[in-house]
Amino acid sequence: MRAFRVPRLLVLALLFLPLLAVRADDAARGKLVRAILSEDAAEQVSLVRELVAADDPLVLQSLSAWRLGNLYLWSPTDGTPAFPFVLDGAADTDGKSGALRISDGTALKDASGQPVRVVVSELTVADTSAKLRKAIKTVLDLRAVGDPDVRVRIDAIVKLGQEQEAGYLPDLERRLAIEKEPTVRRSLAEAIAFTKLGGDDRAARIAAVKSLSDLRAINSLAYLRKLRGAPATVADAELAKAVEAALAVLDDYERWGNLFGTAFRGFSLAAVLLVASLGLAITFGLMGIINMAHGELIMVGAYTAYVVQNLFRTWFGTTGAGPDLYFVAALPASFVAAAAVGLVLERGIIRFLYRRPLESMLATWGVSLVLQQVFRHIFGAANVQVGSPSWLSGSYVVSDVLLAYNRIFVIGFAFAIVGLTYLLMTRTSLGLQIRAVMQNRAMASALGVRTERVNMMTFAFGSGLAGMAGCCLSQIGNVGPGLGQNYVVDCFMIVVLGGVGSLPGTVSASLGVGVTDQILQPWLGAVMGKITVLAGIILFLQWRPAGLFASRGRGLEG
Predict the structure, then answer these.
(1) What is the pLDDT along the chain (558 residues), one digit of tens a residue?
(2) What single-letter DSSP state applies at residue 306?
(3) Using a CB cutoff of 8 Å and minimum separation of 24, what contacts does 396-400 make?
(4) DSSP letters of 390-455?
């Protein structure tokens, strides 16, 4: 018999749980209705604060609507008391909306039992006060502390901590005791310490300052700097000492964080410049052509990513996994599109201008202007929006340094492209022919190498790399007709600095230019930073005219 009673109790418990939940929701709705109809401001605030533990979605929706002035009162014509309601859904073409009674969640109906459609301008708004709105906001923020979404929890915790209300401490400490997510626990600890810092307990304030220092709470820096000069802090030697020690730790932590963040952004910029410069280094070293349209090949890749994105949205809609896969298809599509443009450019113009560097530079400059105008005519002069797929959105946080996933991908992609290019140059027949033509064109031709075919394939490959660089750039910058002009000068600087036709030189120069540019920009500004980098390269080339890694090519044959 005893073994039989346990399942029976479980069944009874399962049967009564929904009933208990319904009763809890009814109780919360009843409190909310009493608060709305009450004429006592203190009673309203007290009743609202009791709704912190409410799990009823209608109650939370009604609180949000009340705070924003979107909660209304209905006065029946039969003389029964007024009752509150909220709108149900958006207004129709006639400006009318459905309505839900807060007391039971049912649709508002007329005397004949038909659902009522209301016009907002004709409704009576439930009154609120500043104190009541603040109480509602507190309840909603405290409710958000337990939200399933980690990001929502952290945002709510940060807001509560910044308000430094002692009344929040029990709820924050209660949540800290059950929270499992490390990032949320850290935010809770910071919020608790920051709240205690705003109190009157001297010992608690000193402990809070030390806690913020141990947590490396960057968000507290501004407050601690303000606190350092406060009369109460100056008069308290122990508190002043704790504040100074915390500021020293946090300032140093912020300084190193800014340095690593800048270096990371520099590496991501260097990765894009590397992919864009790689093809230019090969073609310039092979053919001696100064291709001023190389920036527009980058632009072709970026706009190809935009077109592929729109195609995927048309085919798969804007939700689901389909649109997120567009970038996987955009990378090879950008390579093919830019390679095709490069192939047409080489066959149509550049092959007639070998050994004529000035004419080739002027011709490709004209091509760049034409391509810019073509894209302005097709896509418009304004920038277009290329969104990041969900798997490239967001950041990985390391010691308060945000490492964006799209930039991490760009860095990894650049290393992969360098590896594949190295294998192409050293492990394939085409690579062998390219290196042979670069070293001695006449001898390679005499040995049967079809130099014109090598030129064509190499120029198309270099153009394709530029297209993929543009596809990557679409994830970390704006896409517009002038996109390529922002990077073509940097690409030429990298090729010359690294050594014409040198793969190791291109990698080293890309890292140097990208990281140095990002480090100098916060100090000197974007323009002066680039000017300083250019001046440094000019001075370096005075010392080593052949660049970091000298490579013998056609331009050095004499």
Answers:
(1) 444 444 554 443 444 334 334 455 578 888 888 888 888 888 888 888 888 777 788 888 888 888 888 888 887 776 677 888 888 777 777 778 888 888 888 887 777 777 888 888 788 888 888 888 888 888 888 878 877 888 888 888 888 888 888 888 888 888 888 888 888 898 899 899 988 888 888 888 889 889 988 988 888 888 888 888 788 777 788 888 888 898 899 889 888 888 888 888 888 888 888 887 887 877 776 666 778 888 899 999 999 999 999 888 888 776 656 677 888 899 999 999 999 999 999 888 888 887 777 888 888 889 999 999 999 999 888 888 888 888 888 788 777 778 888 888 888 888 888 888 888 888 888 888 887 877 777 788 888 888 788 888 888 888 898 898 889 888 887 888 888 887 888 888 888 888 766 778 888 888 888 888 887 877 777 778 778 888 888 888 778 777 777 655 444 343
(2) H
(3) 397/183, 399/216, 399/253, 399/257, 399/260, 400/216, 400/218, 400/253, 400/257
(4) GGG-SEEEETTEEEEHHHHHHHHHHHHHHHHHHHHHHHSHHHHHHHHHHH-HHHHHHTT--HHHHH
Residue 293's alpha-carbon distances to 265, 365, 379, in angstroms, are 26, 6, 19
Query: Three-state DSSP class for 103?
Result: coil
Sequence-distant (6+) residues with CB within 8 A of 491 are 273, 276, 277, 280, 294, 295
- Largest Cα span, the chain: 107
| Residues written for the chain | 558
CB 95 within 8 A of CB 119: yes
List the one residue out of 450, 550, 543 whose CA is nearest residue 498: 550
d(CA 288, CA 196): 68
Q: Tell me the backbone φ, ψ of residue 115, rounded to 5 degrees.
A: -60, 140
Distance between CA 30 and CA 205 in Å, rounded?
Answer: 40
Alpha carbon 263 to its chain centroid, in Å, reads 18
**pTM of the predicted protein model:** 0.68
Helix (H) or strand (E) holding 465: helix 451-473
- Residue ranges in 317-404 assigned as alpha helix (H): 326-348, 357-379
The single residue listed with the structure tokens 């690579």 is 431
Residue 348 corresponds to which tokens in the numbers above?
């149509």
Please give the single-letter amino acid code of residue 230.
Answer: A
One-letter amino acid at 333 equals A
